[in-house]
Design brief:
The structure is a homotetramer. The first copy, chain A, contains 11 helices and 14 strands. Chain A is α/β, with parallel strands linked by helices. Chain A has 2 domains: 55 residues; 255 residues, Aldolase class I (TIM Barrel), CATH 3.20.20.70. In chain A, the strands form 3 sheets. An 8-stranded parallel beta barrel of chain A has the order 7-8-9-10-11-12-13-14, surrounded by 7 helices. Chain A has a 4-stranded antiparallel sheet with strand order 2-3-1-4. A two-stranded antiparallel ribbon of chain A has the order 5-6. Chain A is elongated. Chains A, B, C, D: This is 3-deoxy-7-phosphoheptulonate synthase. Chains A, B, C, D: It holds the Pfam family DAHP_synth_1. Chains A, B, C, D: Keywords: Transferase.
Chain lengths: 331, 331, 331, 331
């Protein structure tokens, strides 16, 4: 249940509830709201009940992710970005970090287009073990240097618990890949850090699955979480790699306070469909975009087919900006 | 195969090809392009080959739907609308025609918002036989009268071959519902008329399935076809009724010349998500929207949960127009 | 609601309930059970309530299909078969009727293997309009003659309302194809006949969808209904044409009294997987099998890739019989 | 490519090929077959070509998993079981290890039914972080002791790289859960051990995805791999938790030499459907079953709804044995 406390009694009541329930149940506090797992109103003392302005009993398992517990938007601040709420965050970069020179060149494209976050994979979760697996630490260093040179934030994937300290040393935002969305050990590990986490939705993850996955991170005390829609698996992937579930953007934004980012690149799988999907995501209200770019897609180390060339990326940004401004001017 | 004829030899070569192949194979002509089913270049005479500027052998089964056969956009003209190409067509109305008074009231809302097509079901394909099945002919009459009073076109569903003449007498555009997308007898029947057909994608129809379904209509000589994306069935329908496959809009527009209309209402299933999906569809380049409205959704005869109220619809139109204009101003 | 009447008061109470509700609500009677749509216990008079042994209010929309209304198995009798309950019915034949000679040859194979129903399509719902569409009436005649010569029943597909009288004249069982599962006009039309109907599950039809589709048939007074599981559409159809949902067999048998037939041919799509799927279906408790066979699959007019050759079919029958007998010997 | 060497030249040719390609390309040898990644016949010297009896160029990415590379069945030997080929392996136990007493009691049921592998989770991948997460090391000890007392093998889940040494110390077979099927770091870690690995198919994993996941294990040198079909996610999970993809069993057995085990419990999700799915899996040719049991399902720590009670489990075993014997008697 979630107990919404009367404002003038909140401080004292929170202490009392912690004392009463804290040793047995999980208890979470946000402003004047207290969520207690596995308890119901009949467990409250008369004094506790009297301090409540409202008691909500129909509560999802992922209670910390819910707007019932945390009504206002989560805003995440990184050195160069403010993510969530009315802000719009553009993230871009190559699929893989390929070399120090290349990532710097791409970072310049990213910066020029007005983006504030540089993406790039140093550890790559490839379907086949014989595909390029990423440059590892060397890639992290190159990525960090390029971002620092151009005053950009870094987002990069962490693939297992052991990599967490290494990646943490170089990134501003941890990325958890779609295939690891329910790697609960990894979620717990990044939940213990205090770096923001960008969680990609799994290929067949329901809305409840995604929110429960964020809860593994939040349960460790890390509340700086973003969710990425990157396309789901359906019965037809002949023309697009995945099916971009644009509807999940407003659905998630209704249910949770975490920012929702659209990834049109992995959904489209082919360059020609990236911009329409980016536009759809922005029009549906996404809090940001993460887009793959490459100056020579035919020779990209990975996912070249879906990488926008710099000029295509610039055109995409012009269009998505136009859509955002058109919608802002109405509100 | 598709034979692209040299322009100065096209007329004569078309006649020759018809004579050569017409009695055995299906043969279709569009300007200087001739599609012949079940034939390949080795079947051509030297003279026929000499008349060809290009011969395309990797041809989809739905050849008439393909841009390989018909490169330019199909433009459909109805009394009050021009559909396809750079045009944008707004269609709206209640799920069911409920009475002459009600449909007229809704038509006024539709007209005021700038839409040119009035939708409304007289024959309703309901999941259960015990649900309201529509007013039938009485509904058609009311729909036609309301549209005529306000100078709107009519689109309404036809459910079986026997209904075709009746519906044809009252509508400007036949609607084929998602559940009938592969009702091939019905597709053949509307293919023999010369009224435009709006074909809704089936719940689990692949892109190839949709295009093959249009081909059943085109095979009868009716080339005024629109395709509607109305959401597909995936593993999560708890928050939206279907998954709006926004990516299929640019995919279809690449492959086929027929206009592609977005139906955010059946995808969303809930009012609050209709506008974000409409915006996504428009941003992705849809040639039009078809939207359900109702002044009293709680008492609608069908699908009230997804009907926009008139003021909500007006807001949606303002927003979608803003997005369209923003994108047009860039091109 | 469903009212289970006390046996000694059933006859009188049924009359009273019909009088009370019959002019306004749909009312269905099965032995001492009366289902009334859109009514609840508070609508009953004290006398009506007194006649009830039990009143069930949590009732599915497809009430006539439900075991709550009709607890015992439906048994369907055709001239040469008894379908449902503890009976097992084997149906086989070519995808299409190709000629009088060929269907007779195939009928002999069917008969020799112990099957009692001959399948064969005279009207073929093909994805493309340019594929073979069936021999039509000529095919029906050939199919009927072959079956009569060998004392077999006929099952064949009817594709639209207009074909119903023609097909009815030649078949013992109407087949409704997967693509027409929600062609409600067609379901109503066969519901008005008194010939058994074999309804194939649509590619993405939920259990509720299937049962509601049967209800359209039952609403017309035709209660001789079979349901066929023939595979559903999922994210991987590279190796099998569809995903055989073997679990739906016991699920349907729990919820409904209609026989459930397994179609391993359309699920497998490739000969080598037909027998394993047939065995799975039988082991899971299917009331019968419908299997495609052909003596020369490479030259079959349709679906040759999934047709068992006569010797393969015979082996399949030996194996499925062995499994059935093994399971029967335990009960 | 895969080079099938002439038997009398195999030893020498293998050495030559290793020398030629081993420093640059990944090269795998199985008997007289040599797989070389990213190479084609034109890269071979005339002598190498002369030593080849056949060169296969259409090779899947997961080459070591393929029967093209390893035609004969993989047979896995654990202390009490022989898994794969014509052998049938029964595995059973509770979802979670709940206490030393309880797991011993369940082990006795497992043993009495003729099973040779005891399952039980000590680390539980639960959707919600607030659900029971397993007893951890204490659970492993209890599981090992129970198995040893009754001369059974142990299979238990390992959830992350760090847990590998601990779990390895107590188990005979590592289980990788469906949610971790593409946790590539974990796959690599168990690939470096020499304990058998039982890999559960992910909820929306294609056949190629599953085989590529096994390849991550095989690439580390561990070839003792089993694949488990445990149901996939489709559009209807109202009556069963997942859709049991029985067809994937013969498909996998055709493509790969690894044993394929059926898990009817997670597919069914409800006790009443476990036995029909187990029978379906066995009839389709599964190399074994893994089944969840509990003596008091209503109070199970996890997944009680799908646990068979001991008597239900015994009945299931009688039936599945009957089906296996019936099919064996025919071959």
């Amino acid at each position: 249940m979630i107990i919404v406390l009367k404002n003038d009694q909140a401080t004292a009541a929170i202490e009392e509830l912690k004392q009463h329930f804290g040793s047995q149940q999980e208890i979470f506090v946000h402003n004047n709201r207290v969520a207690i797992q596995n308890a119901d109103p009949s467990d409250l003392t008369p004094a506790e009940q009297a301090a409540a302005q409202e008691i909500i009993t129909d509560v999802p398992a992922a209670v910390q992710a819910s707007r019932l517990f945390h009504p206002e938007d989560t805003i995440i601040k990184t050195p160069h970005s403010t993510i969530g709420g009315k802000n719009f965050t553009l993230m871009a970069g190559p699929c893989s970090v390929e070399s120090a020179e290349h990532i710097l060149k791409m970072a310049q494209v990213v910066k020029n287009a007005g983006a504030t976050v540089l993406r790039g994979g140093a550890f790559k979760p490839r379907t086949s073990p014989y595909s390029f697996q990423g440059l590892g630490k060397e890639g992290l260093i190159a990525l960090r240097n390029a971002a620092d040179r151009l005053e950009l934030d870094v987002v990069t994937e962490v693939m297992d618990v052991e990599q967490v300290p290494l990646v943490e040393a170089y990134t501003d935002i941890f990325q958890i890949g779609a295939r690891n969305m329910q790697n609960f050990s990894l979620l717990k590990a990044v939940g213990k850090t205090r770096k923001p986490v960008m969680l990609k939705r799994g290929m067949s993850a329901t809305v409840a699955d995604v929110l429960n996955a964020t809860e593994y991170i939040a349960a460790g005390g890390n509340h700086q979480i973003m969710i990425v829609e990157r396309g789901i698996r359906t019965f037809d992937n002949k023309y697009t790699r995945n099916t971009f579930d644009v509807g999940v953007i407003p659905v998630l934004q209704k249910l949770t306070h975490y920012p929702v980012i659209a990834d049109p690149s992995h959904a489209a799988g082919h360059t020609e469909f990236v911009t329409p999907l980016a536009l759809a995501g922005v029009a549906a209200g996404a809090n940001g975009l993460i887009v793959e770019i490459h100056d020579d897609p035919a020779h990209a180390f990975s996912d070249g087919a879906q990488a926008l060339k710099p000029n295509e990326f610039n055109e995409m940004v012009v269009k998505t900006n136009a859509v955002r401004q058109a919608l802002q001017s109405i509100e």
